[in-house]
């Protein structure tokens, strides 16, 4: 923002000097006035065409703070150099170009991200978060009690949930029902966690699912890899990436079909309608101009692409 202002000030000074020399030239004066008024603004508008949609306080800061659990490859994770990379950071960068701000990803545990929105620690939460009616309404998915104001979602991807096991050791598991009497490792607060709790209630007496929860998915994978659990579960893109990359593809295998396909949403605290609409407009813009498709293809997750940015499309 400062650099841009400097360029505009310098441009005005140079134009003023030219105009002063040409005081007698009425046409030149008129031309100088037009150039000062319109030139730089048009250029800035072209660089960030949707900047004016943002709330003034965010536009002035030039930064959108994004809460994210940055341990969920390939959606968001740290590369070997410590840089935050993945599907979400790439999409965030593309949205930032449309809005003229930087999407600044800040690490946090998944089950605290919505709380972080309420406390204004974050402006957005973008972390493979499934858009559900419970989250929209601030309802605890297990107790069904009201625990908060809820959030609004701008939906940007679609993914189901998969079960995976150690490679060559599927424990006879090919569906959620097969987990009865076994142990599963999952990230706390996720749809996989909710599914495990729901399925466990259906199991015969004495055959409930032992559910071990972790702050992040990588910790759950480590537990399974070491033999401390019979299975793990994650969103399909994450499970597929773990199967492909962990141990050079020798650690895990996906069992059964993915279930509960649902949209991922960028979460915004209730009442921040201007920010929600700005993010939605920016997402629709990168879908239309093809940048979204390039990002999705880069990470090999074309099956989850969306064709429009819906608001609160989850069920």
User: Structural class of the secondary elements?
Assistant: alpha/beta
Helical content, roughly?
40-55%
Strand order of the largest sheet: 8-7-9-6-10
H-E string: HHHEEEHEHEHEEHEHEHEHH
Q: Write down the overall geometry.
A: globular
Number of contiguous helices: 11
User: Largest sheet, if any?
Assistant: 5 strands, mixed
**Strand-residue proportion:** 15-25%
Radius of gyration: 24 Å
Uncertain runs with pLDDT below 50, 5 residues or more? 1-45
Number of strands: 10
Describe this structure in words.
The protein has 315 residues and is an alpha/beta fold. Helix content is 40%, strand content 21%. The protein is built from 11 helices and 10 strands. The strands form 3 sheets. It has a 5-stranded mixed β-sheet, with helices on both faces. A 3-stranded parallel β-sheet has the order 4-1-5. Helix 7 links the parallel strand 7 (183-187) and strand 8 (210-214). The protein is globular. 37% of the residues are buried.
Tag the structure with descriptive keywords.
three-stranded parallel β-sheet; 10 strands; five-stranded mixed β-sheet; disordered N terminus; 40% helix
Secondary structure elements and pairings:
Blueprint: H1 2-21, H2 26-47, H3 56-61, E1 63-68, E2 77-78, E3 84-85, H4 87-99, E4 102-107, H5 113-118, E5 124-125, H6 133-137, E6 151-166, E7 183-187, H7 191-200, E8 210-214, H8 217-225, E9 231-235, H9 236-245, E10 252-269, H10 273-289, H11 291-298
